UniProtKB/TrEMBL annotation:
PANTHER family listed in its UniProt record: IMPORTIN ALPHA
Species annotation: Geodia barretti
Chain residue ranges for the region called Disordered: 1-46
Protein name from the UniProt record: Importin subunit alpha-6
GO molecular function: nuclear import signal receptor activity
Record carries keyword Chloroplast: no
Length: 390
């Protein structure tokens, strides 16, 4: 007997005939888990705030290179603001060098973190900024190091700084909170439990907000909505959907990237969460962003749409009505394997839907390939006969 060709083997691997809907959706969810693992390359949950080497050398350091960290830590308790500022700057520089493993644990071991947290409460924006920067980079380390920041009571003070009148202060505070939230679901929930969301959403709606602040705030929002075990509390995270609907029309690719990831994280859950995305009017814009010129935007937009397609048949139909099929077929022609894999997953979600949705997909593929014209009555009869066999 002749062996089966590769095309037939590929088709066989996608067949779900004989499986009930629950089994199809279970397989879809398993595929989704595999696709989520590849997200690590696209989305970093923590970031260190780095300083240029030339900038470090140009600054007049009270504590030159090689000064013991214990001596620097003692200066944090000095009465003079200049001494406190110099000590914070020294720690900040040590934790911020390009291309080097930061001495996070060495800084923690001096016992300075509680004092750095206390300085967040001082009525001095320069001190607040430097302290927030130090905590940002400590929180970029291991889970244990991040929990040190939490354990010293930094979170409520950082959240309060989101109302600062100084953009450079609130930007650094939101960055620190994003790093803490990105460490683990447990740390994320500590942040969410500190009433951050009203302050963060208000910040995201500030007209003419500095772009770097907006980028950091949008990134922090994505970290607050990510995670599966456990998922973030929906009653808190879903409050961001109206703001997200506005952010998705921003022109900056970084803001769009973070916002699409937020939508993807929210839709990666039960149908009730997907429905909030649908009701918020986000679907059409997400489909549009699947064809954005920046791959960093396409990837999360496609992920968000794929997650919405895991919903019920009505939710799937909303996506189909937004002309998602032409965009998916376009993505299948790209040279990027990960995008093609995501597009195939999204299409499999459509074909796991009801009979009409499967027919819509077959009709589109045949007409798109110029095989048959569904508007031609003779062709329509052939199509209906074909679909009856699907």
């Amino acid at each position: 007997m002749a062996s089966k060709g590769p095309a037939e083997n590929r088709l066989k691997s996608y067949k779900t005939k004989g499986l009930d809907v629950s089994e199809v959706r279970r397989r879809r969810e398993e595929e989704g888990v595999q696709l989520r693992r590849s997200r690590r390359e696209e989305q970093y949950s923590k970031r260190r705030n780095l300083t240029d080497v030339d900038e470090l050398e140009a600054e007049n350091a009270t504590f030159p290179e090689g000064t013991p960290f214990t001596e620097v830590a003692r200066a944090l308790f000095a009465n003079e603001t200049e001494q406190q500022l110099a000590a914070l700057a020294r720690f900040r520089k040590a934790l911020s060098k390009f291309g080097q493993s930061p001495p996070i644990q060495e800084v923690i071991d001096t016992g300075c973190v509680p004092r750095v947290v206390e300085i967040l409460t001082f009525d001095n924006p320069s001190l607040q900024f430097e302290a927030a920067w130090v905590l940002t980079n400590i929180a970029s380390g291991s889970s244990l190091q991040t929990r040190t920041v939490i354990g010293c009571g930094a979170v409520p003070h950082l959240v309060k700084l989101l109302t600062s009148q100084h953009e450079f202060v609130l930007e650094q505070a939101v960055w620190a909170l994003g790093n803490i939230a990105g460490d683990s679901p447990e740390c994320r929930d500590v942040i969410l439990g500190s009433a951050i969301m009203p302050h963060l959403l208000k910040l995201l709606l500030v007209p003419d907000l500095n772009l770097t602040v907006l980028r950091n705030a949008a990134w922090t929002l994505s970290n607050l909505c990510r995670g599966k075990n456990p998922e973030p509390p929906s009653d808190v995270t879903l409050t961001c959907v109206p703001v997200l609907a506005r952010l998705l029309y921003h022109t900056d690719p970084d803001v769009l990237c973070h916002s699409c990831w937020t939508a993807a994280f929210i839709a990666d859950g039960p149908d009730s969460r997907i429905q909030r995305i649908v009701d918020g009017g986000l679907v059409n814009r997400l489909v549009e962003l699947m064809l954005h010129h920046e791959r960093s935007v396409v990837t999360p937009a496609l992920r968000a749409v794929g997650n919405i397609l895991t919903g019920d048949d009505v939710q799937t139909q909303v996506v189909i009505n937004c002309s998602v099929l032409p965009s998916l077929i376009t993505i299948l022609a790209t040279p990027h394997e990960n995008l093609r894999k995501e597009a195939c997953w999204a299409i499999s979600n459509i074909t796991a839907g009801n009979r009409v949705q499967i027919q819509v997909y077959v009709l589109y593929r045949l007409s798109e390939c110029n095989v048959l014209d569904p508007d031609n009555e003779d062709h329509r009869q052939h199509l209906m006969a074909l679909l009856a066999r699907v």
